């Protein structure tokens, strides 16, 4: 007896082109997801994961316009054109930036918002609020305004709001991006339970993480096309090298891509030749094994590998010593008994008696669970928040007594969500904005040649030179993180602060971020990097500090 296989999600020959683009971001995507399946979409930064999620959840073309071709069905509807109420009863979807999902006041209002719009009875809404605040550890902040939450708290609230709709299908784009390790485990358990109870799940991720082994099937995306699909075991066993080549898995050599660049730039051509042979050899093998790919995609891979290789050989100026940084005992920033409370909120202060020093050439990783005070500390250090007097000293000056202009003047700050930091309309203008400001140039003044070349080198290094005329908002998440970092590192500063720079990024992005950080440290800068994944910075010689409920716990070892 044969059972007919009826997919719940069905895409056939789907291509999508953004309104301002000349070429498609997604090309000929054909995909089926059965009811109760868990499909994971994995692809490097900018490969099109978010775009695919947004085509499936109907935001594209409904909200952002653009041109979609091919057929998309979720059950019996086309999400791109269905009535919103009908869509909400079928699926819930969460993007990478929780701020874009949150609409109302308190946490519990946020959870009630969707069901209220679907006219769910009040008693049932109350039950769902109780259930999801408990499941997602939101009870203590249930009555707080969503605008006063930390990044991870906002992400959990956004997820609770989606789950309270009791959707049949859940589409989650990097759902754990801002969560601390315990929060990640909790989230994993929740979505696994939800899936086990019959829900259809689609998740997207830039890296091959532990969650992958839990899903039923994986689709690998590269340059807007599906290049591989299979079970997690099959892909790991037969296609490991391709996954490395696409920056989804870390390179097995133990040597970072950027340090290969350094060796290549320093004349160790054998290294990059080996690397190229490896890729060429690999591409040949992968060609035979790939279940679905196209010659066009293959050419893209070979082409971009070659571009990277050429860049390494050309840009000597990017070279830094391959070994760690030289740390001096000269302090760049001193924090003395810093206590800080947001006005009118919280039972305990966001920061409580924090004390530490960062020295010249030092990289410090700042870790801690969601809501422990990391972002608050970075805002105070960067001058965005007014520090209390006698708590933060730069060059012996009490920054609590300085104007915002003076205290923020010589810090490079990379925001947790780069979209909050853009000031220009193109990638190029964003990149040179700080240089122009430091030279007192207006936007129509010509940039001196040396500065122009350095900015171009940096954009090329980040793989963004071809995007110079595009809006920063139109970049993929990892590309945005790199641009935000590049903009800051172009200006020599004594102190750089990066808030979760590697979250939801592929190994290409992480590698370049790491390289830029180490280069800055080797030139004498001090760096503070907020992260939930200190392991990504292994080998950087960084010191680790951990915050617990606003109190600092110093780890004595370096990684
Ligand atoms: N609004 C837009 N207009 C034009 N191009 C866009 C827009 N949004 C995204 N793109 C481009 O589409 C490509 C795919 O982006 P997308 O955000 O889907 O990638 P991604 O795989 O989710 O990346 P990441 O994991 O880094 O977020 C990128 O090159 C990006 O620059
Ligand atoms: N604007 C604000 N107004 C009031 N309280 C705030 C505000 N921003 C943050 N808080 C509170 O301060 C505490 C520390 O938040 P912070 O954002 O510094 O944490 P975090 O360690 O960066 O968290 P995450 O890892 O989730 O980003 C949290 O309890 C949070 O609710």
UniProtKB/TrEMBL annotation:
Keywords: ATP-binding, Cell membrane, Membrane, Nucleotide-binding, Translocase, Transport. GO terms for cellular component: ATP-binding cassette (ABC) transporter complex. Residues 9-248, 333-559 form the ABC transporter domain. InterPro entries: AAA+_ATPase, ABC_transporter-like_ATP-bd, ABC_transpr_CbiO/EcfA_su, ECF_ABC_transporter_ATP-bd, P-loop_NTPase. PROSITE patterns: ABC_TRANSPORTER_2. Belongs to the ABC transporter superfamily. Coiled coil: none annotated. It comes from Paenibacillus bovis. This is ABC transporter domain-containing protein. One of its GO terms (molecular function) is ATP hydrolysis activity. SMART domains: AAA (SM00382).
